[in-house]
Design a protein that fits this description.
The protein contains five helices and six strands, in the order βαβαββαααββ. By secondary structure, it is of the alpha/beta class. The chain has a domain at about 15-65 and about 100-140: Ribosomal Protein L13p, Chain: A, CATH 3.90.1180. The strands form two sheets. The chain has a four-stranded parallel sheet, covered by helices on one side. Strands 3-4 form a two-stranded antiparallel sheet.
Length: about 140
């Protein structure tokens, strides 16, 4: 049996806008990752980029359940001795609220070249303004 390879039309990609206000971070990230990969389309193929663009607005208003706001930590390491840094969700939200959503979605897509291409189709902004009005993004609903 031969593997079916759909023709991926790059011009037919749609743009979606998601308002993150009041949405749970993990549930929002799952929906966004599925649209980026194209899992919501009948032509989905795991090794091809058949997904759409996603614009997320109001990144600073995303919600975390439980005590994650104070207990969850993001760790980064520079590679040097003593170069480990830890930040709580509250600290990251205060300085770079977009990184909360980027980090969550990045963990849900493949860790290879395809994943790097998929991440370029994700645009995250704090506030409710975004510069992609010319692409006419359609509103996408996320169920909590």
């Amino acid at each position: 049996m031969k593997t079916y390879l759909p023709k991926v039309n790059l011009d037919a990609r749609k743009w979606h806008v998601v308002d993150a206000e009041g949405k749970v971070l993990g549930r929002l990230a799952v929906e966004v990752a599925n649209v980026l990969r194209g899992k919501n389309k009948p032509i989905y193929t795991p090794h091809l980029d058949a997904g759409d663009f996603v614009v997320v607005i109001n990144a600073e208003k995303v919600v975390l359940t439980g005590k994650k706001e104070t207990d969850k930590e993001y760790m980064s390491y520079s590679g040097w001795k003593g170069g480990e840094k830890r930040q709580t969700v509250a600290q990251v939200r205060a300085r770079y609220p977009e990184r909360l959503i980027l980090h969550a979605v990045k963990g849900m897509i493949p860790k290879n070249r395809l994943g790097a291409v998929l991440l370029t189709k994700l645009k995250v902004y704090k506030g409710n303004q975004h510069p992609h009005a010319a692409q006419q993004p359609a509103p996408m609903t996320i169920n909590n």
